Amino acid sequence: NNRVVIFNRIPSANNASADVVLGQPNFSASALLPTAANTMSSPMSVTTDGRRMIVTDLGNNRVLIYNTFPSQSGASADVVVGQPDFVSNSAGNTQTTLDFPRYAYSDGTRLLIVDSGNNRILIYNQIPTQNGATADVVIGQDDFLGLTESCAASYFAIPFAVASDGDMLYVSDGFNRRVLGFRSGP
Regarding beta strands 120-124 and 137-139, do their DSSP bridges make them parallel or antiparallel, or are they unpaired? Predict the structure, then answer.
């Protein structure tokens, strides 16, 4: 439905109504709207660092960051990652662009984006505060321009998600049907 719904409390009954809708003007709409700070196209995941809400907007090749949890329907994001502004949505494979971002994860300091269309994970050492932020590290490619799809230990074939237990970084490598674990390095 090209939207994210927010429940202010975990529902205790079936068919509970959400409190806030993002990406659409109201709860009954589901249209693919022009790319803007308050619209979405096939959002895939929502995460938080405990303060901000972060949404992967797959169809617009971007990640939206809300500096606080939205309390009003139709709220606009504060920062866009993967695009230079809120109206652009072109795919790319550079240090500042994304192609089908499927998942985002934050450990409270860093932001990791699963950039599925580019078979890579981008790491931002700080959660971006400006549009079009530059990634600091790439995993799954030799450099930021790489497009390799492989089953070798240092490459991915359509990664889906990333998580950490504080010691290891785990990546679900979808088309290779495996989970890879990485320890932090220098």
Answer: antiparallel
The per-residue pLDDT for range 162-177, each reduced to its tens digit, is 999 988 999 999 999 9
Question: CA nearest 119: which of 144, 149, 154, 145?
Answer: 149
pTM higher than the cut 0.85:
yes
DSSP 53-111: EEEEEGGGTEEEEESS---STTPPPSEEESSSSTT------SSS--SSEEEEEE-SS-E
Buried b / exposed e along 5-34 (16+ C-beta atoms within 10 A): bbeeeeeeeeeeeeebbbbbeeeeeeeebe
d(CA 145, CA 106): 23
DSSP structure class, residue 50: S
